[in-house]
Amino acid sequence: MKIGIYPGSFDPITLGHLDIIIRASKLVDQLVIGILKNISKNTIFTVEERVELVNRVLKENNLDTKVKVESFDGLLVDFAKECNASFIVRGLRAITDFDYELQLAQTNHKLNQDIDTIFFTTRLEYSYLSSSTVREIASFGGDIKQFVPECVVQSVYDKYKAIRSV
């Protein structure tokens, strides 16, 4: 069984993430979306909320049988080994992403030579898109419908409404 891991924060999941999930899922028997519990990242959604949002997107796009979502902490290569994954999926938007991602891929390969990294270049319409951009737009009440799956939009607005009321 060919298993790949697509790790990230997914805070929130974007249309760019979804595009890579769809494309990567065609190459594997199973794709695992690894949602990182990263205490150094300042996320707006809890890890449980992020898992739920990604699962909602997968179900809406009929990907929930081939793609599963799990949260993890620690080293990605250790998580990949636990999942019996043979490769890691990463997306590249720009040359600046490549420099960073190449260093990570080489480090991960040094830590575990059985795990390779496959890079997907982002489609042009998503080359500027990031979760942090979506969060910034949403925090000011801007329209994020063209950036995230439809089933995620209200959850993002609700989260910022809750944050503002605290």
From TrEMBL:
Pfam family, one: CTP_transf_like
Main localization (coarse): cytoplasm
Compartment list: Cytoplasm
Binding site for ATP: S9, F10, H17, G91, L92, R93, E101, Y126, S127, Y128, L129, S130, S131, S132
PANTHER family listed in its UniProt record: PHOSPHOPANTETHEINE ADENYLYLTRANSFERASE (PTHR21342:SF1)
NCBIfam families named among the record's database cross-references: coaD_prev_kdtB, cyt_tran_rel
Protein name according to UniProt: Phosphopantetheine adenylyltransferase
Species whose genome carries this gene: Herbinix luporum
